[in-house]
C-alpha cells in the first residue's frame, strides 16, 4: 500500500509581536484575563503590505529544503486559508508562481480554522490515487486584517502566520486516517459578515469584523473535537493509548486541555503554541507540528493526532506517523 507521508515542514511568523500588555493599552482588557481565559500571551501580526502568499512562500521554502525538493519537483499546491491575497486568482497559484514551481494543480480551500486539515486530507487522496507525487500543502492566515481592534471579545484572540508541509508517496506508514465534517447550522456563532456576494460595501468599515459567540463556540468545539478524534482513531483501529502526540488547533488552552483529558494524554504529550501564536486559524496546526518537530520532541515514526475546529462549523482530524 502506498501512503502519503510528510517529508518536510516549515513555518513563518511575521516580525511584529503584539503582547497582552500592548492590548491593555488598546481595549478594556488585562493580561490576566487573556492568559487565564485563553492561554494567549503574545501573537504575531503581519505588516500592512504583507500578504498570505508572502508568508506561505517563506514557510514553503523551509519545508522544501527540509524535504530536499526543488520547485521543479512540486506538482500540486494546496492552501487552506480564509484570508487569501485576492478573491482570484487563488492564493496557491500566486505561491506557485512566486516559488518558481512549474505549472501544476494549484488551488485553495476555505474551511476556516480547519483549512489545513481539509487541505492535507485532500492532498493525501491525490497522492494515494497516484495523481500527485509531491504536494506542497499549507495553512496560512493574515487573519488580523479581519479583526476589529476595538472589540475586546475577539481582538485578543488572533494572530498571523503560515505553516507548510511537503507530502510525498511512501511505502512506510504516513497518513493513516482522516476524518472531516461540517455543519452550516452553526454559521451565526462564528462568521465574518462581508463577502463578494454579501455586504461588500461594508468592507473596510466598522461593520466588517469577526463575529463570535465565544462561549457557545467553546461548548460545541469541545464536544465535536472529541468525536472527530475518536472517528480518526476508530477508522484506523488505533487506541488512544497508542498516541505519541496530540497536535491540536490552538484556539484556547482550555479547549486543548479538555481534549488532552478526553484522550487520557498528559499535557507533556501535547504541542501547545497558543501562548506564543494566539489563534492563527488555518495556520495553527501546521505551525504547531513544525514547532514540535524542530525542537526535537516529535520524532520520525511517532504516532500523531492532529485536529481542528472552526467557523462553519467545520472540523477534522488526521492520524499519521511522522
Ligand atoms: O478557532 C475557531 C474556534 N474558536 C474557538 O474555539 C473559540 C472558543 N471560545 C473561546 O475560546 C472563549 O469562549 C473566549 C476566550 C472567546 C471567551 O472566554 P469565555 O470564558 O467563554 O468568556 P465569555 O465570552 O463568556 O465572557 C465572560 C466575560 C464577559 O463579561 P460579563 O458579561 O461576564 O460581564 C465578557 O464581556 O468576559 C468578558 N470579556 C473580557 N474581559 C476582559 C470578554 N473578552 C474580554 C477581554 N478582556 N478581552
Record the SSE blueprint.
Layout: E1 3-12, E2 16-19, H1 20-24, H2 31-38, E3 42-45, H3 52-67, E4 76-80, H4 91-99, E5 105-109, H5 115-128, E6 135-141, H6 152-155, E7 161-170, E8 175-182, E9 190-191, E10 211-212, H7 214-236, E11 245-248, H8 253-262, H9 274-277, H10 284-294, E12 303-310, E13 314-321
Helix pairs in contact: 3-4, 7-8
Bound molecules: oxa(dethia)-CoA.
Description of the molecule:
The structure is a single chain. The protein has 322 residues and is an alpha/beta fold. The chain has 10 helices and 13 strands. It has helices spanning 20-24, 31-38, 52-67, 91-99, 115-128, 152-155, 214-236, 253-262, 274-277, 284-294, and strands spanning 3-12, 16-19, 42-45, 76-80, 105-109, 135-141, 161-170, 175-182, 190-191, 211-212, 245-248, 303-310, 314-321. The strands form 4 sheets. It has a 5-stranded mixed sheet, sandwiched between helices. Strands 8-13-12-11 form a 4-stranded mixed sheet, with helices on both faces. Helix 7 (214-236) packs parallel to helix 8 (253-262). 50% of the residues are buried. Bound molecules: oxa(dethia)-CoA (UT7). Oxa(dethia)-CoA binds next to helix 2, helix 6, helix 7 and strand 12.
Amino acid at each position: 500500500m502506498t501512503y502519503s507521508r510528510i517529508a518536510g515542514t516549515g513555518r513563518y511568523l511575521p516580525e511584529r509581536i503584539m503582547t497582552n500588555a500592548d492590548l491593555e493599552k488598546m481595549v478594556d482588557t488585562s493580561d490576566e484575563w487573556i492568559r487565564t481565559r485563553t492561554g494567549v500571551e503574545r501573537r504575531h501580526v503581519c505588516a500592512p503590505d504583507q500578504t498570505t502568499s508572502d508568508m506561505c512562500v517563506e514557510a514553503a521554502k523551509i519545508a522544501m529544503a527540509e524535504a530536499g525538493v526543488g520547485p521543479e519537483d512540486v506538482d500540486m499546491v494546496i492552501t487552506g486559508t480564509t484570508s487569501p491575497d485576492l478573491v482570484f486568482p487563488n492564493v496557491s497559484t500566486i505561491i506557485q508562481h512566486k516559488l518558481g514551481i512549474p505549472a501544476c494543480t494549484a488551488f485553495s480551500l476555505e474551511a476556516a480554522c480547519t483549512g489545513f486539515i481539509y487541505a492535507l486530507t485532500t492532498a493525501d487522496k491525490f497522492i494515494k490515487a497516484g495523481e500527485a507525487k509531491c504536494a506542497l500543502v499549507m495553512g496560512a492566515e493574515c487573519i488580523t486584517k479581519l479583526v476589529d481592534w476595538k472589540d475586546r471579545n475577539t481582538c485578543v484572540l488572533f494572530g498571523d502566520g503560515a505553516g507548510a508541509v511537503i507530502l510525498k508517496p511512501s511505502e512506510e506508514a504516513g497518513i493513516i486516517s482522516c476524518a472531516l465534517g461540517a455543519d452550516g447550522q452553526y454559521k451565526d456563532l462564528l462568521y465574518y459578515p462581508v463577502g463578494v456576494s454579501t455586504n461588500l460595501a461594508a468592507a473596510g468599515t466598522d461593520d466588517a469584523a469577526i463575529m463570535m459567540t465565544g462561549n457557545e463556540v467553546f461548548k460545541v468545539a469541545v464536544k465535536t473535537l472529541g468525536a472527530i478524534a475518536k472517528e480518526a482513531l476508530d477508522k484506523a483501529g488505533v487506541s488512544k493509548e497508542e498516541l505519541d502526540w496530540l497536535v491540536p488547533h490552538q484556539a484556547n488552552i482550555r479547549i486543548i486541555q479538555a481534549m488532552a483529558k478526553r484522550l487520557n494524554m498528559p499535557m507533556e504529550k501535547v504541542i501547545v503554541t497558543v501562548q506564543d501564536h494566539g489563534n492563527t486559524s488555518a495556520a495553527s496546526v501546521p505551525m504547531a507540528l513544525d514547532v514540535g518537530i524542530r525542537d526535537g520532541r516529535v520524532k520520525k515514526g511517532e504516532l500523531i493526532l492532529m485536529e481542528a475546529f472552526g467557523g462553519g462549523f467545520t472540523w477534522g482530524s488526521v492520524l499519521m506517523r511522522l
